[in-house]
């Protein structure tokens, strides 16, 4: 029901959620979660809690709390925890490298909304998306470095998908994204909030860092929902296409996810890997998310320190 995720008018959103999503999706999601569940809980919350603990150890003088946009601990619980410690100024760190209204923006908006209802709201500043920061690219590369020592036929960057209309809505110029040829490559103030431009920049920077040969890497988008036009190509279709072209050994990374979760562990590493092999591929290697890799802890603490 989040209007920044399903951006239809409220009555239509209610109908979509209650008539088309809730009758089917919970059962399917429950089965998917069973495939990846750990004895202590969901991988996403476990990785996130460990990340928070590691960063807290590195930044011992700063109170740090963890909140989830949906679920527990909630963003309000996280803020209240800081408030109880006497905190008045907060740096909000959305753990999304790339800006999108359905991820980065909705977190910021929810925190600001929560604080607007407080008698003494905390002063909130926001760490910008870090998609092109050297420290993030270095951490992403370091976490995947060992897997890159072997040879692959192709290297695929798989990002969470977005409906094309989200790019148009986030275009502050109103006349650039998906309206200009090669819009992601032409300088524009729209890029500050353009998800596709930002994921392409991450991919190019990583490919350069890892010395990936031109023509042997590409970008695709996973986790789509509904029938509206989404960013293409679709990862599930792309891996089949690659297999049919003769690619036998495929290396895949998902840079939009800093922690492994349902979309990486079940959708990508299981479902999409099976699609690749069914189409004739032989080796599908998923490079795990950074999770609590030492390089990511160093990168995140650097980004936070620069803002504080």
Outline the fold blueprint.
Blueprint lengths: L9 H12 L3 H12 L6 H16 L16 H10 L4 E4 L8 H16 L6 E4 L7 H11 L9 E7 L3 H7 L24 H15 L7 E6 L12 H10 L4 E5 L8 H17 L4 E5 L6 H14 L1
Parallel strand pairs: 1-2, 3-4, 3-5, 5-6
Helix pairs in contact: 2-10, 3-11, 6-8, 6-11, 9-10
- By CATH, the architecture of the largest domain is named 3-Layer(aba) Sandwich
CATH class annotation of the largest domain: Alpha Beta
Globular, elongated, flat, extended or rod-shaped: what is the shape?
A: globular
Q: Return Rg in Å.
A: 20 Å
According to DSSP, the number of beta strands is 6
Oligomer: single chain
Mean pLDDT: 95
What letter string, H or E per element, gives the SSE order?
Answer: HHHHEHEHEHHEHEHEH
* Through-space gap between termini: 34 Å
Estimated helix fraction: 40-55%
Q: Which fold name corresponds to the CATH topology of the largest domain?
A: Rossmann fold
Q: What profile does the largest beta sheet have? A: 4 strands, parallel
How many domains in all? Answer: 3
Proportion in β-strands:
5-15%
Widest sheet, order of strands = 4-3-5-6
């Amino acid at each position: 029901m989040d209007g920044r995720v399903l951006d239809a008018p409220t009555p239509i959103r209610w109908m979509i959620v209650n008539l088309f999503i809730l009758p089917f999706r919970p059962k399917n999601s429950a089965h998917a979660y069973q495939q990846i569940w750990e004895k202590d809980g969901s991988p996403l919350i476990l990785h996130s809690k460990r990340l928070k603990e590691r960063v807290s150890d590195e930044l011992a003088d700063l109170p740090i709390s963890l909140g989830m946009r949906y679920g527990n601990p909630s963003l309000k619980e996280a803020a209240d925890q800081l408030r109880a410690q006497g905190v008045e100024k907060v740096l909000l760190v959305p753990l999304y490298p790339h800006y999108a209204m359905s991820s980065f923006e909705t977190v910021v908006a929810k925190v600001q909304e929560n604080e607007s209802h407080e008698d003494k709201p905390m002063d909130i500043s926001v760490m910008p998306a870090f998609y092109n920061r050297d420290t993030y690219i270095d951490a992403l590369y370091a976490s995947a470095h060992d897997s890159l020592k072997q040879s692959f036929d192709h290297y695929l960057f798989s990002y969470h998908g977005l409906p094309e209309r989200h790019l148009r809505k986030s275009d502050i110029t109103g006349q650039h994204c998906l309206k200009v040829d090669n819009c992601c490559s032409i300088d524009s103030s729209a890029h500050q909030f353009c998800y596709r431009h930002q994921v392409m920049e991450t991919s190019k920077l990583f490919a350069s860092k890892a010395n990936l040969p031109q023509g042997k890497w590409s970008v695709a988008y996973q986790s789509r929902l509904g029938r509206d036009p989404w960013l293409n190509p679709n990862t599930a279709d792309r891996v089949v296409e690659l297999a049919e072209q003769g690619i036998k050994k495929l290396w895949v990374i998902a840079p939009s996810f800093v922690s492994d979760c349902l979309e990486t562990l079940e959708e990508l590493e299981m479902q999409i890997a099976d699609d690749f092999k069914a189409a004739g591929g032989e080796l599908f290697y998923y490079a795990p998310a950074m999770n609590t890799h030492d390089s990511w802890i160093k990168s995140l603490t650097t980004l936070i320190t620069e803002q504080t």
